[in-house]
């Protein structure tokens, strides 16, 4: 598995990031442990989670994904073989939200405890907190890095102007800077990233680990009509957002290229992302070892120039 630099952090990661939102949600503990073991065995050892995962599931309150990962780390003893990214800032209960220094110091200790580790490889702002001065947030992150609790920091869901401002604040104040960006980006959702964020990422040498890489499953090809709404917990969103003329054009192109390469639409979609120069490692999840094998295969698929051109054209915004 070839590796890529994660911004200027000095951390090297594989071509895909595994999305840990499934842990404590759509897969049980035993399956989670099997997936984590298989990820390490296949060198897909970069796992992205968040303190808030998966608070949206009935009976959950947040922290479930980190807890599963932490239990696996304790049982397996493989902390040194994985790179762990988590996030802070989404609502975690009364008074537990945002990026104030006080809350960051509290939240990181909570995440470390759940993960059963003494350091986090990549600690990310889950949302931009415009009520807290950037200098205060970045100073708090800088303290964590100097204390050895965090190796690098990143930004998720930031707009281009605020990301630029944050990078300037770090430079002007001699503080640790955001080394990564986590935006929504896939074959369907291109405009938000390509319009402004992509240029910032390239100019500043940021690592980009994009989420919704398969558009909540739409780009796997399993949603073709309104009757497919029941195929997942996100079915309603997928059908309403993606089943339109542009979406169907994208699916048709994916079908043709999947047949050409004797593979699947999901693998073609991921190969397109991997081939984009500004993308470091798309985030993607699996809920079974069979699905995980498909992700591994995607890292070995190389699209021809004309294939990429075709996908660029049918998905143009």
UniProtKB/TrEMBL annotation:
Residues 16-315 form the NADP-dependent oxidoreductase domain. Pfam families: Aldo_ket_red (PF00248). It comes from the Bacteria. InterPro entries: AKR (IPR020471), AKR_Detox_Biosynth (IPR050523), NAD(P)_OxRdtase_dom_sf (IPR036812), NADP_OxRdtase_dom (IPR023210). This is Aldo/keto reductase.
């Amino acid at each position: 598995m070839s590796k890529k630099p994660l911004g200027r952090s000095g951390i090297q990661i594989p071509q895909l990031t595994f999305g840990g939102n499934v842990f404590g949600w759509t897969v049980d503990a035993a399956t989670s442990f099997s997936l984590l073991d298989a990820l390490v065995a296949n060198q897909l050892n970069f796992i992205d989670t968040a303190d808030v995962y998966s608070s949206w599931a009935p009976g959950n309150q947040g922290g479930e994904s980190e807890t599963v990962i932490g239990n696996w780390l304790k049982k397996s003893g493989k902390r040194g073989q994985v790179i762990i990214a988590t996030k802070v800032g989404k609502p975690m209960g009364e008074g537990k939200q945002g990026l104030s220094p006080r809350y960051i110091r509290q939240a990181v200790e909570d995440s470390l405890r759940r993960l059963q580790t003494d350091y986090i490889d990549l600690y990310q702002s889950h949302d931009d907190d415009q009520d807290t001065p950037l200098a205060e947030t970045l100073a708090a992150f800088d303290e964590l890095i100097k204390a050895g609790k965090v190796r690098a920091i990143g930004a998720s869901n930031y707009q281009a102007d605020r990301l630029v401002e944050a990078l300037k604040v770090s430079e002007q104040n001699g503080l640790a800077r955001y080394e990564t960006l986590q935006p929504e980006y896939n074959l369907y959702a291109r405009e938000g990233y390509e319009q402004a964020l992509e240029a910032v990422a390239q100019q500043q040498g940021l690592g980009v680990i994009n989420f919704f890489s398969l558009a909540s499953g739409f780009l796997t090809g399993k949603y073709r009509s309104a009757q497919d709404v029941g195929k997942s917990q996100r079915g309603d969103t997928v059908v309403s957002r993606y089943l339109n003329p542009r979406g169907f054009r994208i699916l048709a192109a994916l079908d043709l290229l999947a047949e050409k390469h004797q593979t699947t639409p999901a693998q073609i979609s991921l190969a397109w992302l991997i081939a984009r120069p500004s993308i470091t490692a798309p985030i993607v999840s699996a809920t079974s070892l069979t699905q995980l094998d498909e992700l591994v295969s995607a890292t070995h698929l190389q699209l021809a120039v004309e294939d990429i051109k075709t996908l660029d054209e049918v998905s143009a915004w």
